[in-house]
Amino acid sequence: MSDDIIEILRESASDYLQAKVDINEQKGHVGLPRVRNRQQWQEIAELGWLGLALPESQGGSGMGIKAAASLCEIIGRRLFAEPYIAGALMPSVILGAAGDVAADSAEGLVSGAVHFALAWQEQVSEADNLTYGTRFEAFPEGGQVAGMLHGRKRFVCAVEDDGVLLVAATTPEGTAIVAVNANADGITVQRVATAQGHYAEVTFKNTPVRDYPLLQGAVADAALEKALAWGRVAAAAQLAGLARGALETTCDYVGQRRQFDRALSSFQSVAHRCADMRINVELADAAWSAAALELDLTERPAACASVYAAKARAGEVATMAGRTAVQLHGAMGFTEECDIGLFLRAAMQYNSWLGVPTGLLRQFMAHTIQPEFGAVTDNSSGASGGEMDRTGQTTETESNRELAGNRDALTDEQFRQELRTFLAANFPAEWRQNFHRPFRRLRGEQQVHWLRILNDSGWRAPAWPREYGGMGLSFRKQLIYHEELEHAGVARVIDLGESQLGPTLILLGSDEQRAHYLPKILNCEHVWCQGYSEPNAGSDLASLRTSAVLDGDEFVVNGQKIWTTHANDSTHIFTLVRTGKYEKKQQGISFLLIDLQTPGITVRPILNLAGEDEFCEVFFDNVRVPRENLVGELDQGWKVAKSLLGYERIWIGSPALITKALELSSQLLAMRELDIDCGARDRFAKLCADLHDYRLLYARICDDIADSGREPGPEVSMLKLYASELLQRVTEFNVEAAAEWGGVVGDTRIGDTLIDLHWQLMMSRPVTIFAGANEVQRDIIAKAVLKLPA
Fold first, then answer.
1. Closest residue by Cα to residue 308 from 228, 194, 372
2. Strand 554-561 and strand 572-578: pairing?
3. Do 652 and 629 fall into the same domain?
4. Exposure string for 557-575, b = 16+ CB within 10 A, e = fewer
5. Alpha helices by DSSP H, 405-494
6. Which residues fall in a compositionally biased region of kind Basic and acidic residues (predicted)?
7. Helices 357-367, 678-708: inter-axial angle, 10-degree rounding
8. DSSP class of residue 368?
9. Any catalytic annotation for residue 648?
10. Same-domain status, 553 and 464
11. pLDDT score at 392
12. Distance, CA of 777 to CA of 771 (rounded, Å)
């Protein structure tokens, strides 16, 4: 089903629901079970919704789970209360599997004339228990009654007094699915209220079944598995829609509501909570979309780990969004005169139905492909190809830049395999990231050595145009490039000359600057650091005070920079300086290139909490800098500095470091025999699911940038923010899982593995600070993504 057709379906559904549905009808009925609004059910039948997932041979549209889930997202966003999933989608899976046997039933479902409900569950908190106490006792053919039904079903949704129940029961031949009228003899129905409908407990006592089973045996089990999987994905989409609807309603409210003569949205705490809601909504959207795609491609829906993850994620997000939205509406949010509470109620209903998050995450862990507890990924193994020559050259004869050719012309798979082979042959095994140093960075001579190997082999500067000595890769191949570096365990390199200064000069530098500096960056003759932050201007770069006064053909620079990463390993610094005074602080800033050997410069390393000297202070005392080192126009350095932050946040947001930290989590659980501890396993499962969903969001945003060809926008702040905080949660879990060993500073041996948990925990602290503190990222999301007024 094409995306264009699905989008048309979504737009028409949104228009109908906005025009025809009065959500006030859901108010004033707390605790009262609700049945279908038959007029609205008939209207959506005429719109073709009820037969959306039925095969065309049965009068349906055959549009599949992706279309159905997309419709459910709109249903959630618009607070539509009719039981579409329970009353149409899940029954349609059963009837579709039954084929011609269910032709009349399918016709009744599509037209809206017959109201179906699927009755499968018997116990509380069942996820996929397809064995039943309810029994179908078949009679010989030819009688007026096909057999009798005995047993009880619980938490049945969408039961109508004159409807039809599709009941899963056991027989000597295996599972059977039979259709029985809800008003048949021997049936008792007891309803309890939910937010938008009801649960029913249905008891069968010598209940006559007039038709033989629609499905029986393995075919019945497969149909039930599919119905549950489709129901969960659709429910995840509806929950994601509820969360987005709550967010949109809340943003409208806080943007208009005023307190203390200010819009509520101008309070940072309010804006940040809205930003967090938006990030989680995007995660839920990515999760259910990926699960729907996986269901379309599999014959074993019950084995789709992404289905369980999507339902768990969306349930948590929708209930969180509902609670936050009520809070931000204040006292009004606690009344039924306000619509916002309806989102929370509906979220509670669908979060509880078809599996709660804890149980779903256990199923996710049981079905996902993951290393066994205690398994160690050895990134140093499997190396093949030429050996490294310790002079910095490779032994491959065709590894120079000229013979490397245009690698962007390779297919993605050819490019991936060529890079993978090169890394296996050329990156030193002893420098790879491992459990002891999962966040390893190369410094000083090691960094220069590796970068020169890349340069000599034609693998340097993937984003630079080829005419400037780079690889000229598309954004999609840049993603593959970074993925393969991480897959191979290549230690990270803070190469600001390549990642920041080079692209800045290519975009805004003069011809002379490009000719002079770019080759020296590539061959590591120049090693650059970034001079932005100051003692009283961390993330607030507009408040910097380091001055540069023009004196003839030179600037005289005075001031101080701080948190300058690896300045003690660098030869040069690109820095922001104050060159003019304007009413707007962002004006009057210029971008200068400075040789760190210039008289008047002092570099003082600062030990961080991990005991390393990554950060430095840089002092400028009447430092004279040639005017030709000005990049861009005078007083326009703010524009220069902002030009590359988007790409930086994409690479910082990579899931790779989190993956390595979680591999250590698995190792620790096994070593401490916590893999049998339910509490520890549940927390580990939650972290694994968080990473699973984040990978989906990361891929979605990166694919959108690659497909559109546009520059990264403010949405990449979501990547940097969520990834950094998830990494911290994982390292904190590891320290707690290690018990007393978590308090050891330095190397400690746990089992057969040497680990420095203190180093890892401390090295994860600054990830929420650098490249713009996460509080600043939340401001960006609130203002630029959510369009909240300042």
1. 228
2. unpaired
3. no
4. bbbbbbbbbbbbbbebbbb
5. 412-426, 444-456, 475-487
6. 398-408
7. 80
8. S
9. yes
10. no
11. 34
12. 9
Contact 148/209 with Cβ under 8 angstroms?
yes
* CA dihedral angle for residue 224, residue 226, residue 232, residue 234, rounded to 10 degrees: -120
Query: Is 584 found in the same domain as 534?
Result: yes
> What does the chain come to in residues?
790
- The CB density around residue 272, as the number of other CB atoms within 10 Å, is 17
Cα atoms in the Cβ-side hemisphere of radius 13 Å centred on 71: 28
Residue 340 belongs to some domain of the structure: no
User: Domain check: are 637 and 656 in the same one?
Assistant: no
Pairing relationship of beta strands 258-259 and 388-389 according to DSSP bridges = unpaired
CATH of residue 605 = 2.40.110.10
Instruction: Please list, in sequence order, all residues whose beta carbon lies within 8 angstroms of the beta carbon of residue 123, skipping any fewer than 6 positions away.
Output: 129, 154
pTM score, two decimals? 0.86
pLDDT of amino acid 127: 63
Q: Do 407 and 471 lie in a common domain?
A: yes
Task: Determine phi and psi for 543, rounding to 5 degrees.
Answer: -95, 10
DSSP assignments along 325-349, one per residue: HHHHTGGGGGSTTSSHHHHHHHHHH
Report which of 319, 313, 256 is spatially closest to residue 286, judged by C-alpha positions: 313
Report how far residue 437's alpha carbon sits from residue 491's, in angstroms, rounded to the nearest whole number.
Answer: 9
Phi, then psi, of 770 in degrees rounded to 5: -75, 165
Supply 282's token pair: 């995007």
Domain extent, residue 660, equals 647-785
Whether residue 770 sits in one domain with residue 686: yes
Give the closest residue to 461 by CA, choosing from 399, 391, 530, 523: 523
Catalytic residue among 73, 282, 294, 648: 648
Domain boundary among 460, 493, 526: 493
Neighbour tally for 763: CB within 10 Å: 23
Q: How far apart are CA 514 and CA 467, in angstroms?
A: 11
Q: Taking the CB of residue 57, how many other CB atoms lie within 10 A of it? A: 12
| CATH number, domain with residue 774 | 1.20.140.10
CA 679/CA 674 separation, integer angstroms: 9
Q: Give the DSSP per-residue string, 631-678.
A: ESSTTBHHHHHHTTHHHHHHHHT-SHHHHHHHHHHHHHHHHTTGGG-H
Name the helix (H) or strand (E) containing 701: helix 678-708
Residue 778 domain flag:
yes
d(CA 106, CA 177): 15
- The residue assigned the tokens 């256990």 is 362
484, 527: one domain: no
How many C-beta atoms lie closer than 10 Å to residue 132's C-beta? 21
Is 97 inside any structural domain? no
Among 619, 643, 667, which residue terminates a domain?
643
Residue closest to 175 by CA, chosen among 105, 120, 93: 120
pLDDT at 287 over 80: yes
Band of residue 688 on the pLDDT scale cut at 50, 70, 90 = very high
Q: pLDDT digits over 78-91, tens only?
A: 999 999 999 999 99
Confidence of residue 373 (pLDDT cuts 50, 70, 90): very low
Weakest mean pLDDT among 205-214, 283-292, 575-584? 575-584
| 750 domain-assigned | yes
Question: In this predicted structure, what is the pLDDT of residue 375?
Answer: 38
Q: In Å, what is the CA distance from 20 to each residue of 15, 80, 426?
A: 8, 10, 65
Domains contained in the chain, number: 3
Structure tokens belonging to residue 21: 């549905």
* Same-domain check for residues 674 and 617: no
Q: Which helix (H) or strand (E) holds 554?
A: strand 554-561
Distance CA 226, CA 304 (A): 10
Bridge partner residues of 153 (DSSP): 202
Burial (CB < 10 A; 0-12, 13-18, 19+), residue 512, is exposed
Q: What is the DSSP letter of 357?
A: H
